[in-house]
Amino acid sequence: MIKDLQQKILDETKKRGVCVLAHSYMSEEICEIAEYVGDSYALASAAKKVKCPTVVVCGVRFMAETVKMLSPEKRVVLANPLAACPMAEQFSREDIVEVKKRYPDYAVVAYINTTAEVKTVADVCVTSSSAVKICRAMPEKNLLFIPDINLGTYVASQVPEKNFKFLSGGCPTHARFEKSHAEEAKRAHPNALLLVHPECRPEVCELADYIGSTSGIMDFATESDAKEFIIGTENSIVQHLQTKFADKKFYPLSRDFFCHNMRVTTLRDVYDAVTGEGGEEIVLDGKTIADGVKCIERMIKLGG
Ligand code: 13P
Ligand code: SF4
To answer: What number does the ligand 1 atom closest to the CA of 171 have?
Structure first.
């Protein structure tokens, strides 16, 4: 059944000129049929490269908005309209305009997990894999990092030459796990390396052997000679890695490490979005695109 539906999706994408982009948190069956699979940075870069007139994004809303801003001439469809990132909704454009008044000499560094409207008032955008490099490369010395305080704290620790201010936003999925969860997982698997996403709390990151984006974690586990790993990010990454490497063992930091928004998209949603029977076309006005794309393009320029 799954194979049949996957084949139908592949046939329809070819017939209709549709390209499917999937974030690495998607299920195995979705990743298998996507043209590009990767972290937020990889999806943003892919948006510039894809040739098809329609792009179906399997991920959360801000990812589809980013694709639309980078390729406004394309029809961009979010495979499941319910897929939102709660962190991206934590601050509105107006909130950020107010905060900027308090810190007029600070450049606004916006995590890509923000709405298109928030991006219109940011100086640069970053993803978890590119934030350190970009903050280092920026000529500005004072950086207001929004909205994720955990990612911001991690970046500040790697870029001590800059002055950082933070807002108190964050990812409810990653921030839920405490030092005691990491300690418990390490006790249960004493030979395993702990790999965590920088959206985790600083006290969890302190215990980690590696800190990186979803793709960074997957690359580290692929290249490492170690045989056991505790994965401190969404549990889909545990499944992807275990499917890929039968000779290695992967354990979740917690069995509850789920982002419901990332899990809501099904293979059937992808089929419906590809055939025009489902999904939601992303519509942004010209001014939002023109103002918001600048910080994403600066990210791609500085991120390489
Ligand atoms: P990545 O930069 O790893 O894609 O992070 C996206 C995300 O939503 C992690 O929670
Ligand atoms: Fe947003 Fe966190 Fe889910 Fe990523 S894992 S989409 S940051 S809520």
So the answer is: 10
Query: So what's the pLDDT on residue 229?
Result: 98
Contact 88, 173 (CB under 8 A): no
The residue-averaged pLDDT of 264-282 equals 98
Residue 270, by phi and psi: left (phi above 0), alpha (psi -120 to 50) or beta? alpha
Residues 8 and 144 in one domain: no
Ligand 2 environment, Cβ below 6 A: 60, 85-87, 113, 171-174, 199, 234, 259, 261-262
Q: Bridge partners of 255? A: none
Q: What's the domain range around 77?
A: 2-84+262-283
Mean pLDDT, the chain, whole residue set: 97
Through-space distance between the first and last CA atoms of the chain, rounded to whole angstroms = 41
Q: What are 177-216's pLDDT values in tens digits?
A: 999 999 999 999 999 999 999 999 999 999 999 999 999 9
